[in-house]
Amino acid sequence: MREKPLSTGTFTQIGLYAVSILLPPLSLIWTMKYLKSKDPKAKQIGMISLGLTIAALVAVIWLSIAFAKNVTQEVNQQLNQYQDIGL
After folding, report:
1. How many whole angstroms separate alpha carbon 42 and alpha carbon 52?
2. Helix, strand, coil distribution of the chain in percent, nearest 5
3. Beta carbons of 46 and 83 less than 8 angstroms apart
4. How far is it, in rounded angstroms, from Cα 86 to Cα 66?
5. Under a CB-based contact definition with an 8 Å cutoff, are residues 60 and 52 in contact?
6. Could you give the C-alpha distances from 69 to 23, 53, 78, 79, in angstroms and in order?
7. CA distance between the termini of the chain
8. 76 pLDDT tier (thresholds 50, 70, 90)
């Protein structure tokens, strides 16, 4: 049996790229299908999707670390204020 060729239309690409940015881990399912395809255009779409997925994951990790540092700093400032009062 032959595999059904993957869609490489504009709306399909936009959808895949949007999922790659908004839901990075879930997009890997579709990205791998495109990367395994024999069609060069589908492979290119898969590579772009993989790049967007990795960039989105790096951004989420970086923002999470920055947020955690900010929260820690705020909590420490609050604790230091109470220690200065003598409570």
Report:
1. 15
2. 85, 0, 15
3. no
4. 31
5. no
6. 24, 24, 14, 15
7. 76
8. very high
Tokens read off for 14? 């936009």
Q: What is the pLDDT of residues 5-61, one digit of tens each?
A: 888 899 999 999 999 999 988 999 999 999 999 999 999 999 999 999 999 999 999
Q: Six-digit token pair at 85?
A: 């009062």
Split at pLDDT 50, 70, 90, the class of 86 is: low
Q: Which residues contact 70 (CB under 8 A, 6 or more apart)?
A: none
> Residue type for 19, please?
V
Distance between CA atoms of residues 76 and 74, nearest Å: 5
